[in-house]
Amino acid sequence: MTPLTRRPWQTVALCLGFAFFYAPIAWIILFSFSGDLASSGEGWLSLHWYRALFDNQELQQAAYRSLMLALLSSPIATVLGSLAGIALARTERFPGKLLLIALLAIPIFAPEILIGFSFLMLFAAAQATTGWPQEKGLLTLVISHATLGSSIVAAVVFARVAGRDRSLEDAARDLGARPLRVLMTITVPLAAPGILSGWLLALTLSFDDVITSSFLAGPENTTLPMAIFSGLHVGLDPQINAIGTLMLAGIAAVVAVSFVAAPRARTP
Amino acid sequence: MNRQTLTWLDRLSVGIPFAWLLVFLGLPLLCVTALAFHSIADSIPPVEPLLRVSDGHIVLHASFRAFRLVLTDPLYRHAFLSALLNAALTTAGCVLIGFPFALAIARAPGRRRNLYLFLAILPFWTAFLLRAYAWMGLIRDSGPVESLLLWLGILHEPIPVLYSPAAVLLVMIYSYLPFFVLPMYAVLEKLPAELLAAAADLGARPGYVFRTVTLPLSLPGVISGGILVFVPAVGEYVIPDLVGNSRTVMIGGILWDEFFENRDWPLAAAIAVLTFAILMLPALLMRRWLSRTAMVAA
Q1: Which residues of B touch A143 (CB under 8 A)?
Q2: Chain A residue with minimum CA distance to B201
Q3: Based on the domain organization, do A258 and A171 belong to the same domain?
Q4: Which residue of B has its CA nearest to A184?
Q5: How far apart are CA A59 and CA A28, in angstroms?
Q6: What is the CATH number of the domain that holds A65?
Q7: Chain B closest-CA separation from residue A46 CA (Å)
Q8: pLDDT given at position A244
Q9: How much of chain B exceeds pLDDT 90, in percent?
Q10: Do B290 and A155 touch (CB under 8 A)?
């Protein structure tokens, strides 16, 4: 097949594309191992910034807070999003389907600054009328991140479920299985890869979020991205590269584990 | 297909996320819209209540100050326009870089395709701010990118890039590229190879095949990827703030400043409502894009 043979432009496009994608990553890793070149004159290949990071209580606390936030909000997002995604894909019509789709589409399309601001206005109005929530903090952060994440999860789960044949579910129903049993033994397991990748996306989204968090965190609850963002304004030292390299290592580990575990999961 | 009857489970699985989204996504939008009609006050929160009871009557205390200001002051119009221009250029950049890249991945032999796709997504799992920070290092004065361009002879003398509109555009394109590449790839991958082979067999040159077969069939990917880049890019705040200068203040930055610096909540709300109206109405009307969006994440 002529059109599918490799052409020089393909190699060029791939090389340039990957160079563009990976240039900042290479920079982060490279400079995380640089010494404090300006002051101490330590040479290359030093763990200086990692030691500095290890001593930086503030950043560590922010990282811990971000992790907690991601771990608390992403499961809520996964449950809400999976229910919505399955309902949209499996239920032919229900009142307000269009409105639900529109609501789910908002966080995907709309600039985040609009959504973060809107969340805060809701909580401000709620506080003015009911006295709840008393202050911005972990609770408002979890609610907002869960809402943002649910939309992504719904999109992924919907994509996974929508194209699938329903004959298994129909058969189970014809054989007398109750709706809950059909859902739990057929629909959810079939949607599981979508639910899992949706959860991972919601987790990273939450861990990476700076704008919504800035609106909703309050003074006591600086998250890691917020700390990095304010650090970038005052001129942050290369500790940030050390954080980045550690995150990359973590992601690489997760990816490696999932690659090793995946084939086994298929054969129980 | 038979009309399904809704079981209690259907109602529950629709009802729970629906109720949550109405309260935490629909209601906030209403709050913002209402807030835009408040007048400012020196209190916490810094607005006058919209309804007040005086002499046993409920008095509506609405103000159009915020909307009037946003619509008449050239500062806001300029910020809107520069945000739209920047988003358009970002989208164009993503198409120019993302299309050949996605096509090259889609045309790669089967096994490699997944590897390439995986490698293309991997960098975007690292924190966004760290990548922006790395770009700040790469494009700073006498940084590696400038040295490379000088050495290659593309540049003849150093020009400052960091803290300029060009830097904003570069980092924007970099950050938004995956949102274009993924839907683009999803469409290009499904492009039937037989059509290309047939066109070639019938004597069409590669350029002609591209123009008459590949391009028209890949248009849906360009459009959905383009929307996924353009719409969020209009409201981008972080990137212009980090690598731009005072001339790259866009509507996102204005909203941020009105809220955090000036504490003018109604004005920030009016900006939000207008931005939302401009961006979302066309997007929401095209509901079939939701399923396209789904492909991005999948």
Answers
A1: 24
A2: A2
A3: no
A4: B9
A5: 18
A6: 1.10.3720.10
A7: 19
A8: 84
A9: 36
A10: yes
Residue A85 has pLDDT above 90, yes or no: yes
pTM of the model: 0.87
Q: Domain-by-domain residue ranges, chain B?
A: 67-297
Q: What is the pLDDT of residues B61-87, one digit of tens each?
A: 788 888 999 999 999 999 999 999 999
The verdict on a CB contact (< 8 Å) between B127 and A247 is yes
Rounded Cα–Cα distance for residues B231 and B228 (Å): 6
Residue B45: asked if its preceding bond is cis (omega within 30°), the reply is yes
DSSP state of A133: S
Residues A213 and A259 both lie in one domain: no
Are residues A107 and A184 located together in one domain of the fold?
yes
Domain that includes residue A68, residue range = 58-225
> What does the pLDDT look like over B177-218, one tens digit per residue?
999 998 899 889 888 888 888 888 888 888 888 888 888 888
* A14–B275 CB contact, under 8 Å: no
Distance CA B120, CA A40 (A): 38
Per the structure, how many domains does chain A have?
Answer: 2
The CA–CA distances, whole Å, from B273 to A14, B70, B250 equal: 41, 11, 16
Does residue A2 fall inside a structural domain? no
**A253 & A221 share domain:** no
Contact call for A125 and B31, based on CB within 8 A: yes
d(CA A114, CA A173): 44
Rounded mean pLDDT, B8-28 = 91
Give the nearest partner residue to B24 out of A143, A158, A159, using CB atoms.
Answer: A143
Å between B156 CA and nearest CA of chain A: 22
Q: Check CB contact under 8 Å for A251 and B200.
A: no
pLDDT digits (tens, 9 = 90+) for B84-140: 999 999 999 999 999 999 999 998 887 788 888 888 888 887 788 888 888 988 888
Which segments within chain B are labelled E, that is strand? 51-54, 57-60
- Same domain for A144 and A66: yes
Query: In chain A, what residues touch B4 (CB-CB under 8 Å)?
Result: 91-93
The answer to whether B107 contacts A125, with C-beta atoms less than 8 Å apart, is no
Same domain, A241 and A201: no
One domain, residues A209 and A256: no
CATH placement of domain B67-297: 1.10.3720.10
